Amino acid sequence: MTKRVVVTGMALTSPLGSDINTSFESLEKLENCIEYNKDLDQYERLNTRLSARTKGFEIPQTYNRKVTRTMGPLSIMAVRTTEQALEDAGLLGDEIITNGQTGVSYGSSSGSLDAIIDFYGMQIDKVVRGLNSGSYVKMMPQTAPVNISLYFKTIGRLVPCSTACTSGSMGIGYAYETIKNGYETVMIAGGGEELHATEIAIFDTLYATSLKNDAPKLTPSPFDKNRDGLVLGEGAGTLILEEYEHAKKRGAKIYAEIIGFGTNTDGTHITNPNRETMKIALELALKDANLTPDKIGYVNAHGTATVQGDLAETWATEQVFKRLVPVSSTKSYTGHTLGACGAIEAILSIEMMNRGWFHPTLNLNEIDPECGKLDYIQGQGREIKTDYIMSNNFAFGGINTSLIFKKV
């Protein structure tokens, strides 16, 4: 018999803020977090100068040099938000974290980029310098979940999810399946990403970045006819998932229940999305949740503000729901936080469901007629009473994810 899986702890750091209440207040103020990044001026032939950095994130004094010797900025954000999420769940210091009943399922697009560059320097200059015992741990793609496990001394399953823009949602989905099938009682789940010029350059070389350098508050513009590309952000989000009966027995606060997860791959192109397989991913989540599409009251879209992504995603969503389902994109506030976006967006979507208010897509002035026919939330946001929401993410490599949460 499968187990029910609930969310009992949540924490984040993001361009909106580094606690949930602050972040939600920023949503309610309809504040765009995009800024001109002067650090990017040093790079010739880099077109964009825009980014979205975390706000309010502080590293505790207890995170001394010995603690952080294997951590880059990514891992520090991941470990700190995990600490806050465990505290929120009432499990920080609980023996269940260290007795094998807790695992980690966490993702990022890559390891810390500066550590990778240190190894690159060795290859170019033919000199070994600046490397130490922690260098590889900082750069490896599983650096965030490994550092989380080491810091909190978990000995259960570790599921590293380095799947680009679905890293965070994949981390949540695999954690859900781990508990659902009885392998663990508690899972630390989510994703993170540090902001780095090289990652910005990846999208810049694909002509996918916004060039509104003189008007950062007017971009990105998901689903808008006049969109001009995405903006990169950074952050981390951690959710504590727990087997329902265990959470109920200890009197834990329950934010939501995860009832559906769907994932698949396109099998067609490394960067161009496949709308047919995106559609199937959403259907897989609904099937797993044993829900019909009419039950979903809101969809948090991936919504990157790229033409190919917006068109494919909205077509797939329209084909699944066959009605004007309410939709909005959190990336219009935070930019694209890559490996963190699935976790940050899941946390904020759960908060919106519980509060009954859903944010609009910022900078959506003229809906692209080529996009799917959906109920795009605009203006001041929308009060919606619903017990079911969906959060979708899609990644390079043709990796698709869909999560469904239920109000408890």
Characterize the structure shown:
This protein is an alpha/beta fold. The chain has one domain (1-408): 3-Layer(aba) Sandwich (Peroxisomal Thiolase, Chain A, domain 1). 33% of the residues lie in helices and 20% in strands. It contains 13 helices and 15 strands. The protein has helices at 20-28, 65-68, 73-89, 113-125, 135-139, 143-152, 167-180, 197-205, 244-249, 275-289, 307-321, 331-334, 341-355; strands at 5-13, 35-36, 50-51, 102-107, 158-161, 186-193, 235-243, 256-265, 298-301, 326-329, 357-358, 375-376, 382-383, 388-395, 399-406. The strands form three sheets. The chain has an eleven-stranded mixed sheet with strand order 5-4-6-7-1-8-15-14-9-10-12, sandwiched between helices. It has a two-stranded antiparallel ribbon with strand order 2-3. The protein has a two-stranded antiparallel ribbon with strand order 11-13. Strand 9 (298-301), helix 11 (307-321) and strand 10 form a beta-alpha-beta unit. The protein is globular, with a radius of gyration of 20 Å. 57% of the residues are buried.
